[in-house]
Design brief:
Elements lengths: L1 H18 L16 E2 L12 E7 L4 H17 L3 E7 L7 H12 L3 H13 L8 H10 L4 H8 L2 H16 L7 E4 L3 E3 L1 H13 L1
Parallel strand pairs: 2-3
Antiparallel strand pairs: 1-5, 2-4, 4-5
Helix pairs in contact: 1-2, 2-4, 3-4, 3-6, 3-7
Length: 202
């Protein structure tokens, strides 16, 4: 839990650095500070606000443990940031959960069901890896079955899945949870581990 709290703190530090206008050149040594400066900044669509994007997977125990901290932190930022979630795709069986997340988002139910999905998988050990299992689950959470399936199989959800995969490639995401900040920085477990090791050796 201390590692997760440290990770949470480093995200906040990186975001704070962004808001005071730190450039990529100034962040060249970002690894030692718990984040990595991207070699090429990525476009964002959040205007003057800082865009914060979480890459996650429902089956990831670290994502599950980190989610309450991140959710609380995002709420405290108010309108200073634009927060987005991107479900990742590492294997074919990740696809149903990707589509489920974007279907829930389209229905305005993502914030409500998102933590319940984590709990079901990690606390109740439910295998929610298929369209059928996910549909049954969200219906139990009060989501209309027909509307969910319409969204799940819609062109717009498929387009978001395609875009998510492109973002994952663009940001070179090879592990989760990973946080992208302003299209310029990323932080994740490997950055945190390196920082903790560096601090311990000083």
């Amino acid at each position: 839990m201390k590692l997760l709290q440290k990770f949470f703190g480093l995200v906040g530090i990186a975001l704070l650095s962004m808001t005071v206008g730190m450039s990529l050149a100034q962040a060249a040594d970002g690894k030692s500070q718990g984040y990595t400066a991207l070699t090429e900044a990525q476009p964002t669509d959040s205007g003057k606000k800082v865009e914060v994007t979480e890459f996650f997977w429902y089956g990831c125990p670290h994502c599950f443990a980190f989610d309450p901290f991140l959710t609380d932190w995002v709420k405290k930022q108010g309108d200073k940031i634009v927060f987005k979630r991107v479900p990742v795709f590492f294997r074919d069986n990740f696809l149903p959960q990707q589509k489920a997340y974007y279907a829930l988002e389209a229905l305005g139910k993502a914030d409500q069901v998102h933590p319940k999905l984590f709990d079901a998988i990690h606390k109740d050990h439910q295998r929610l890896e298929t369209e059928e299992a996910l549909t049954d689950f969200v219906v139990k959470q009060g989501v209309d079955k027909a509307k969910f399936l319409d969204a799940y199989n819609s062109f717009s959800v498929q387009a978001k899945v395609t875009r998510a995969t492109k973002l994952q490639t663009t940001y070179r995401i090879n592990g989760v949870p990973t946080i992208a900040i302003g299209g310029k920085f990323v932080t994740g477990p490997s950055d945190v581990a390196q920082t903790l090791n560096s601090n311990a050796s000083e």
